């Protein structure tokens, strides 16, 4: 991989991509349309390479606001190690511009699998939900739903640089065995992480055995302090290109017909929650809610120590993120 290839990432992030906006449309037309072979009735975009039973997943929208200008300026540091935004209210949109970019590089390198560029993830995974609810779109499969022909769905929609998500909204979506095997193949120090919130792969949990989400190197997503670690991104993409075909051959261990929930925080068993938990409780525009979902252990500690009061929501969200970054023995991440 060389840094020249990052130019298209800078371009992707230069469009604001509120669901259905002109910016999202322009980004899709310029970067995704030229390489895909199918668009469904909801607008999700697909590219198939080979026959490997693996889905690679990202989303085309971002948490930009409807009223944001179509384009924005992004910056990189001198060493080209970081992509970030200026001091306005908008986010960078590496969530999920980076995921889109990784998939474009993998397609270029002909890594086998089915690539799905989902729509409207930030509004509660609407594009992937549509796919689940429209099995009639399937052709040539013996299954009730064509998604059941797949063993793995790997989303590129997680902050940080070491997570392979095993649980989303407290429900198990991928086995530890699979997460470890994927981490071993990548050989970059990734660990199984049960602190996932929600991304499109969670919607496939009843149909596909191993549904995960992988750290792609952005931080502070959904805020104007969002940045993308470019060094990590280049390394990760190179590894995915090198071992992507092997990832598609990994064994699947989780039984998608069984539900398993985390029992955490000593709050008793949460198995009463349904798989719609994460969708129902997702508020794309709510910074504080997002910080709580992303760093639950930090929030729990702050509440226990009674220090988190008398601040407004934005201030509190920043404090949670800062605290999370400086903790050395955190549980998640
Ligand atoms: Zn995302």
Indicate the percent of residues in helices: 25-40%
- Label the overall shape: globular
The small-molecule ligands in this entry are: zinc ion
Spans with pLDDT under 50 lasting ≥5 residues? 265-284, 329-333
Strand order of the main beta sheet, please?
1-2-6-3-7-12
Backbone structural class = alpha/beta
Q: Based on the structure given, which CATH architecture of the largest domain is correct? A: 3-Layer(aba) Sandwich
What count of structural domains? 2
Q: Could you spell the SSE succession in H and E letters?
A: HHEEEEEHEHEEEEHEEEEHHHHH
| CATH superfamily heading of the largest domain | Zn peptidases
Strand count, sense and closure of the main sheet?
6 strands, mixed
Q: How large is the radius of gyration? A: 19 Å
Overall pLDDT level: 87
Residue fraction in strands: 15-25%
According to CATH, the fold-level topology of the largest domain is Aminopeptidase
* Topology, number of strands: 14
Identify the CATH class of the largest domain. Alpha Beta
How many DSSP H or I helices? 10
How far apart, in Å, are the first and last alpha carbons?
26 Å
């Amino acid at each position: 991989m060389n840094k020249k290839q990052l130019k298209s990432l800078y371009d992707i992030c230069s469009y604001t991509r509120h669901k259905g906006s002109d910016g999202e449309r322009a980004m899709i037309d310029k970067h995704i349309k030229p390489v895909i072979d199918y668009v469904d009735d909801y607008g999700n975009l697909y590219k198939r390479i080979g026959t490997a039973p693996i889905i690679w997943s990202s989303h085309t929208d971002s948490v930009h606001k409807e009223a944001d200008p179509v384009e924005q300026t992004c910056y990189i540091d001198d060493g080209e190690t970081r992509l970030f935004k200026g001091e306005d209210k908008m986010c960078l949109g590496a969530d999920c511009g980076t995921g889109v970019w990784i998939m474009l590089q993998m397609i270029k390198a002909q890594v086998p699998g089915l690539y799905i560029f989902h729509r409207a993830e930030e509004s509660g995974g609407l594009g992937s939900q549509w796919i689940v609810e429209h099995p009639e779109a399937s052709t040539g499969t013996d299954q009730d739903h064509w998604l059941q022909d797949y063993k793995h769905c790997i989303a590129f929609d997680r902050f940080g640089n070491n997570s392979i998500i095993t649980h989303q909204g407290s429900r198990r979506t991928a086995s530890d065995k699979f997460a470890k095997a994927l981490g071993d193949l990548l050989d970059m120090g990734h660990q199984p992480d049960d602190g996932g919130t929600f991304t499109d792969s969670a919607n496939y949990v009843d149909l596909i055995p191993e549904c995960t989400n992988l750290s792609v190197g952005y931080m502070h997503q959904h805020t104007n302090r969002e940045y993308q670690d470019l060094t990590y991104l280049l390394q990760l993409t190179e590894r995915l290109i090198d071992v992507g075909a092997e990832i598609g051959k990994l064994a699947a261990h989780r039984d998608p017909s069984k539900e398993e929930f985390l029992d955490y925080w000593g709050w008793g068993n949460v198995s009463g929650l349904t798989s719609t938990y994460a969708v129902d409780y997702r508020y794309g525009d709510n910074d504080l809610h997002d910080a709580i979902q992303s760093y639950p252990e930090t929030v729990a500690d702050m509440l226990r120590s009674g220090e988190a009061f008398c601040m407004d929501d934005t201030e509190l969200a920043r404090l949670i993120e800062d605290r999370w970054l400086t903790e050395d023995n955190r549980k998640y991440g």
